[in-house]
Amino acid sequence: MILEERPDGAGTGEKSARLQDCDSLPQTQRGQLQSRRARIYQQIDKELQMRTGAENLYRATSNSRVRETVALELSYVNSHLQLLKEELEELSGGVDSGRHGSEAVTVPMIPLGLKETKELDWSTPLKELISVHFGEDGASYEAEIRELEALRQAMRTPSRNEAGLELLTTYYQQLCLLDARFLTPAGSLRLFFQWYDSLTGVPAQQRALAFEKGSVLFNIGALHTQIGARQDRACVEGAHCAVEAFQRAAGAFSLLRENFSHAPSPDMSAASLSALEQLMMAQAQECVFEGLSPPASMAPRDCLAQLHLAQEAAQVAAEYRLVHRTMAQPPVHDYLPVSWTTLVHVKAEYFCSLAHYHIAMALCDSSPATEGELPAHEQVFLQPPASSKPRGPALPLELGERRKLGKAHLKRAILGQEEALRLHTLCRVLREVDLLRAVVAQALQRSLAKYSELDCEDDFCEAVEAPDIRPKTHQKPEARMPRLSQGMGPDIFHRLGPLSVFSAKNRWRLVGPIHLTRGEGGFGLTLRGDSPVLIAAVIPGGQAAAAGLKEGDYIVAVNGQPCRWWRHAEVVAELRAAGDAGASLQVVSLLPGSGLPGLGDRRPALLGPRGLLRSQREHGCKTPASTRASPRPLLGWSRKTQQGKTGGCSQPGAPAKAAPPSPSELPGRL
Questions:
Q1: 117: which DSSP letter?
Q2: Rounded Cα–Cα distance for residues 587 and 536 (Å)
Q3: Using an 8 Å Cβ cutoff, are 460 and 420 in contact?
Q4: What's the sign of the alpha-carbon dihedral 489, 493, 496, 499?
Q5: Which of 273, 279, 385, 270 minimizes the C-alpha distance to 325?
Q6: What whole-number distance in Å separates Cα of residue 190 and Cα of residue 208?
Q7: Within a domain: residue 608?
Q8: Would you say the C-alpha torsion 9, 14, 19, 24 has a positive or negative sign?
Q9: pLDDT tens across 248-263, in order?
Q10: What's the CA gap between 569 and 564, in Å, rounded?
Q11: At what angle do helices 123-132 and 142-155 cross, to 10 degrees?
């Protein structure tokens, strides 16, 4: 072909038109995206208005029938809201949850929707508590209160990624610190924490801060499910990331189930959390299988690989059968969406049929097994319970016998895939594109094509029955605790002082300023510890005793400088620098009844393997028993776990083990 050069100016109009078309194409796509976003926002506003009206009716009526009808309507509204928000997130992220830019179609997962909450005013109760109990001006902590409110406001709509998890974890850590600092065994913050149920959409509210912490922990687990469902599982790395996310979600639900009691909403009940934990573990097992069998690297001629895939698929099917059995039982059956139960049932049938398909491929398309491989192959099939005769090799060596058994497994695969499609048609489809149906239909066409290839018209041999496949996996997923203590941020109310002393469970009296002068024997006191520094001993007849200082007082200010967070060496250096003129001290004296920890346990561990459970026990934050009968008790921490499991909390009055003293704990006489 000879390329001819155009004269100058020729084709300029065509080029300009093509450039205009290229420019208009992105504009058209952006306009379509903006139109879709605007439509979704309008639908979300409409659903929110409907939920507000239904919520008001739910609270106003006492008729049980009306409440049931309104609760059902709230569940529908909540489902629509979750779908709209997920669609909006996909538009914003530009990610197709089904394909992820890959040609392979993956089976959809079940992500949980986040619990929603309303705005909360922390200002009045916190200012009052700071003024009354801590003896400080509550108005001076306006900046800290605004920071807490801004953090909670941002936590209500986290992004569906690691940044969203970090935001939820940061707020959860601040709730731990608030619990340790401001809560007493006999009191609360006098705030109503209101959250909407993730499964039913019904609102619930309580005064207990534990309800706020439990709801945030639930959202941490739910966000892990959304991150896992959005992974590109067509590649090995994406499948491994999905396994990690679902394991973290299961760990969050397990932690919530073990440590919370008297949940006011169905999604946080023990039965629902147990079902959700099993569901996350089954989805993690499915991701393990997908990580083993990417379409690009499957080896249909490898007998051992096909047998391995068959047992992995059987393991996934067994996990989903267990989940379906749990979800079909009351009261979980009344809370979880029907589409979830159907999806789990369909997956159980699909992976069972997939296991039989891989066995058929091992029999028909793979080379016969060697003598050394036969014992391993015999473990692939389950022994029939009624059979008492010892069975021969699981995989026959003759080609005819292999084809006959392969056809039997293919027949079971086809029947299972047809059953999965039948179950799927019984469920009302809420999405426009049904990926699960496409996956099962594609697998069915593959099985039918293989069966027609093996089927012969002159084949009059007696049909054999395909045995069940033994489930087995090389990687059993385990629930992993979310990273609640990772990147522990600073305490927002840091200025109030160390938690070991300055918390609502302690009572103290502010003394001073006291002018302390140096005598011939020094100041006449011994200091010990850090943040705050403790007066460990007062010499009788010395300058400190004459000034009114007592053993057990804590130094909170030196020469007008707040020193609640000073180290031992810093306070000693400031006193020694005072010279003969002396120093002005301000101390706090603990009053009787304060539960101050010993010197070896000055800093309470707020977050650990058991998270807040340790903190509440160490601080004595026990949920008070209600003084009147209530049909819905307060959400509280469970007391079932033994102290040995929560780690290192000694019984009151028990002698503590001696530990080597740190330099700050060594007495320093002044």
A1: B
A2: 13
A3: no
A4: negative
A5: 279
A6: 9
A7: no
A8: positive
A9: 999 999 999 998 877 8
A10: 13
A11: 140
8/575 Cα distance (integer angstroms): 91
Distance CA 18, CA 24 (A): 10
**Confidence band of 394 (pLDDT split at 50, 70, 90):** low
The structure tokens 């393997």 sit at 609
CB neighbourhood size of 538 (10 A)? 22
pLDDT of residue 84: 67
Q: Name the strand (E) or helix (H) holding 585.
A: strand 583-590
Domain stop point among 582, 599, 616:
599
The pLDDT tens digits of the residues spanning 285-307 come to: 999 998 886 543 445 567 788 88
DSSP string, 626-638: PSS--SSPPPEE-
Q: State the pTM of this model.
A: 0.74
How many residues does this entry show for the chain? Answer: 670
583-590 vs 203-206, strand pairing mode: unpaired
Last residue of a domain, one of 70, 93, 116: 93
For residue 256, the model assigns a pLDDT of 92
> CA–CA separation, 126 vs 132, rounded Å?
10
Task: Round to whole Å and give the CA distance between 245 and 232.
Answer: 13
Q: Which of 452, 349, 462 is nearest to 410 (CA)?
A: 452
Dihedral, CA atoms, 160, 161, 166, 172, nearest 10 degrees? 30
Strand partners of residue 261: 636
Torsion on CA atoms 343, 349, 354, 355, rounded to nearest 10: 130
Residue pair 588/508 in contact by the 8 Å Cβ criterion? yes
Tokens coding 490: 């600073």
Count of the separate structural domains present in the chain: 2
- φ/ψ of residue 584, rounded to 5: -100, 120
Nearest alpha-carbon partner for 112 in 216, 220, 205, 37: 220
pLDDT value, residue 60: 78
Span 101-126, average pLDDT: 79
549 assigned to some structural domain: yes
Residue 642 domain-assigned (yes or no): no
Q: Which residue segment(s) compose the domain that 529 sits in?
A: 497-599
Q: What is the pLDDT of residues 365-382, one digit of tens each?
A: 765 554 445 445 456 765
Is the pLDDT reported for residue 670 higher than 50? Answer: yes
| Gyration radius (Cα) of the chain, Å | 33
3-state secondary structure of 114: coil
Q: What angle in degrees, to the nearest 10, is found between the helix axes of 162-182 and 612-619?
A: 10
Query: What CA–CA distance (Å, rounded) separates 43 from 541?
Result: 79
Spell out a b/e string for 477-488, using b for 16 or more CB atoms within 10 Å of the CB, else e: bebbbbebbeee
What's the CATH number where 545 sits? 2.30.42.10
pLDDT, one tens digit per residue, over 466-515 is 888 889 888 899 999 988 876 677 889 988 888 888 888 878 888 878 88
Domain assignment present for residue 521? The answer is yes
ω into 532 cis (within 30 of 0):
yes
Distance CA 494, CA 490 (A): 7
